Amino acid sequence: MATICPLCNGLQLYELKCPSCNCSMNDIGRYMDFFDDYSPYLEIEGMKKSNGISDDQQSGRCPHVFDCPTCGHRHVKEIDELSKF
């Protein structure tokens, strides 16, 4: 069954508090998009094979980078994907 990320597709917002200063963090995109200039244009399933996250292809989650505008802390959070009908 195909899945989609609710953040990548603008279906949901996710609020994450910074573990350093407790301020709201901003979602700045998929983890894999930060690898190099061409990463955002590569196929997602192919990138899941080499992104360094174990079981990423089977997990049904999409890793996103969150950034704190107050202290600059960055955190990767895996977001549960939704089943595509």
Topology:
Blueprint: E1 3-4, E2 26-30, H1 44-48, H2 56-59, E3 61-67, E4 74-80, E5 82-83
Account of the 3D structure:
- The protein is 11% helix and 27% strand.
- The strands form two sheets. The protein has a three-stranded antiparallel β-sheet. Strands 1-5 form a two-stranded antiparallel ribbon.
- Strand 3 and strand 4 form a beta hairpin.
- The chain has two helices and five strands, in the order E-E-H-H-E-E-E.
- The protein is mostly beta strands and 85 residues long.
- The mean pLDDT is 80.
Oligomer status: single chain
Approximate shape: globular
Any low-confidence stretches, pLDDT <50, length ≥5? none
**Mean pLDDT, as a whole number?**
80
Going by helix content, strand content and strand pairing, the class is: mainly beta
Total number of β-strand segments?
5
Helix content: 10-25%
**Can you summarize the main beta sheet?**
3 strands, antiparallel
Bin the strand percentage: 25-35%
User: Helix and strand succession?
Assistant: EEHHEEE
Spatial arrangement of strands, main beta sheet? 2-3-4
Radius of gyration: 13 Å
